[in-house]
Amino acid sequence: MKILLIGEGAREHVIAYGLFNSSKNYRIYALSSYKNPGINEIVKRSNGEYFLGDINSVETVREVIRKVNPDLGVIGPEEPLFHGVSDVFKQEGIPVFGASKRNARIEESKVWAREIMWRYSIPGRLRFKTFFTIEDAAKFVLEYGGSIAIKPAGQSGGKGVKVVADLQAYLSQEKRNAMSKSVKDIGSLYKKEGEPRIIIEEKVDGPEYTLHVLSDGNTTLALPLAQDYKNAYQDGIGPETGGMGSISGPGKLLPFINEEEYDMTYDIVKKTIEAIYKETGEKYVGVIAGQMMLTELWGPTVIEYYSRFGDPEASALIPRIESDFGELVEFTATGHLTKVNLKINDEPTVVRAVAPLGYPLSKKLASGHKIWLDLDKIKENNCLVFFGSVSLEGMQLITKGSRALELVSISPYNVASEKLDKCIQYIYSTTKLIYRTDIGRTIDEQIEKAEIIRYSYRNRMRSGNLGVSADWSPTGGLW
Description:
479 residues, alpha+beta, Rossmann fold, Dna Ligase, domain 1, 24 strands
């Protein structure tokens, strides 16, 4: 059976890894914009073929499909989904693991996602306002005195979120002046004809986590929880990135999220899948994820949705799946998810991303550097390596400007962190490498924070005030 994989990052490498380790002996073909060394090795070992081209071009994808004639398509990144690449596979009569263009809008447009949450009364929804111009958004920031989060109105690679919390009245005006200047930068991250550029939401606070749910159009299957570490630098400071690491486990939970909250989150995602079908008339096939926060307002609260596996969350989840991952993907794409009996490794996973100096602020500075690693030493320390923004050029590995590698350890949190500390020593480059060593080491702090929030939202639940905010209207905007 032939599988055509679309994408080139660490997420696609770990998907290829899962497919290659299937009992089905798939032949894996890939289309990427550059040659990922990890994907390349799997393609060669499975007797497939590697194609280079524009992964967002429906014409290029159609051309490769007709050359390969695959039995199944698998799409990793979000951008090809936004461009309708999943629909090309369907037009060619090939089942595909990946949301349609219309359904992927749940990630592409934060505004559409918020609108359908309010339209269908989905729990965990935040109140919001949208702005078509930077000037109107900046004016609102100056005039409104409450705590807010300012975001690009559409998908921007996890970047661009700014938060204003008015905790000290005498600083409010200064904060608003500073934030109104930031609106211009945020507005530049998303510009689509006829759509809002900026969304401003009520601010919430709490531990973040992600639930990925597989959907074959009729049946859903929830995977274990994961948590992404967005900020570039140690202890959660610095600019936001696509993710500097991730954790998952033990079991299907995280230490600070309980079974009831898992079930509430799963219910939110299932209601969202139903709402998407009502809006688009197309059944959701692929993976959808709720990027969540545990808050005193709602308990499980939606920050945003993914229409694909998160990255680096995929590296925390897929290696823990003990069921046949290939069958899991195949049955999702072909409408047979009821056949799956999901088994997972109960041990936690810690993922640490490694990026060249310059990431995420300067792709130019972070590009064009040689990188090499001692894979044997890394394997001796029981770590996995997934290649991200690294191109195989001749016999050299060259950085492309984003996260270059993801190191993975499946062990209790303290043991995993120590293993990753050792493995990081076997990665070398012609530039300085940045990474976070605190990933998986702040569990106790998050447990304590979650307990405080849990007490608050349960009180709201008992009094019938879940989701109620004083200065935001029940229809999603300001009074």
